[in-house]
Design a protein that fits this description.
Helices cover 23% and strands 27% of the residues. The protein has eight helices and eleven strands. The chain is of the alpha/beta class. The chain has two domains: 90 residues, Beta Barrel (Elongation Factor Tu (Ef-tu), domain 3), CATH 2.40.30; 149 residues, Nucleotide-binding domain of ferredoxin-NADP reductase (FNR) module (Rossmann fold, 3-Layer(aba) Sandwich), CATH 3.40.50.
């Protein structure tokens, strides 16, 4: 028997959104505690007893009975090339320790919260926009999601619809949640990299909101290149990067899946 067998959890739900993107859920272990926005290490059982583990943001909020994950399929990825074949009732390995920088505790109090994401980087924000505490701490929450194609936006669009329709969460949202979707390779209502939409001020005019001020707080999760570019923009505005033990104006996630 594998030494990881105590960490096995059954798959309860799978949905393929595109040929390269899918989401899945598992039952939440009774002993797992996490803050919305954190990630855990997951993997697949194998005969060598040395499973490949990768960091996955939990896409469900801290109060949920299930854990949802959103994954890209990397063609030759050691984990995702196999994870794409999972079926209902299959086992996956879930390590019980959660961590991460995309948590509300890592930000100073502010008026607006901007959540910038690309690709599967939307996952931790799916958790945070369903978290009542997010709306208790901020007067407005602006979430953006940028992908190459229109089809790749479906997961985030569905998550936002679920938020607004959820009996509990919708009471906290009370028109506080604004969303903005854009594409980089296909024509769409909004087109362009989020960095360009910020620097050109188009994001703010499209949403009819004020430009960035010192009272705004930010989280971002995407490719390393996007994260670095967003960080540069915010540093140039005189804002500082925060951490769990040193809250500031913005935080970014540094864990990646392969």
């Amino acid at each position: 028997m594998s030494k990881f067998s105590n960490n096995y959890q059954k798959i309860t739900f799978i949905k393929h959104w595109t040929e390269n993107l899918f989401s899945f859920r598992i039952q939440r272990p009774a002993n797992l505690k996490f803050r919305s926005g954190e990630f855990v290490m997951i993997g697949l059982p194998n005969q060598n007893d040395k499973p490949i583990l990768r960091a996955y943001s939990i896409a469900s909020p801290s109060w949920s009975d299930e854990l949802e994950f959103y994954s890209i399929i990397v063609k030759d990825g050691p984990l995702t090339s196999k994870l794409k074949n999972i079926k209902i009732n299959d086992d996956i390995i879930l390590m019980p320790k959660s961590t991460g920088t995309l948590v509300l505790d890592a930000l100073k109090p502010g008026q607006r919260l901007f959540l910038f994401s690309s690709g599967t980087g939307f996952a931790p924000f799916s958790s945070l926009i369903k978290e009542p505490e997010t709306y208790e701490k901020f007067e407005q929450v602006i979430i953006t999601h940028t992908c190459r194609t229109v089809k790749e936006l479906k997961y985030s669009q569905q998550a936002i619809i679920e938020c607004n329709n959820d009996e509990i969460v919708s009471e906290f949202i009370a028109n506080k949640l604004l969303s903005y979707h854009s594409t980089t390779r296909e024509d769409y209502t909004n087109k362009g990299r989020i960095t360009d939409l910020i620097t050109s001020k188009k994001l703010f005019s499209d949403l009819n909101i004020n430009q960035i001020s010192s009272n705004d707080r930010f989280m971002f999760c995407g490719s390393m290149g996007l994260n670095n570019d967003l960080k540069k923009i915010l540093l140039n505005l005189g804002l500082s990067e925060g951490a769990n033990n040193n809250p500031a104006e913005f935080v970014l996630e540094k864990a990646f899946v392969g």
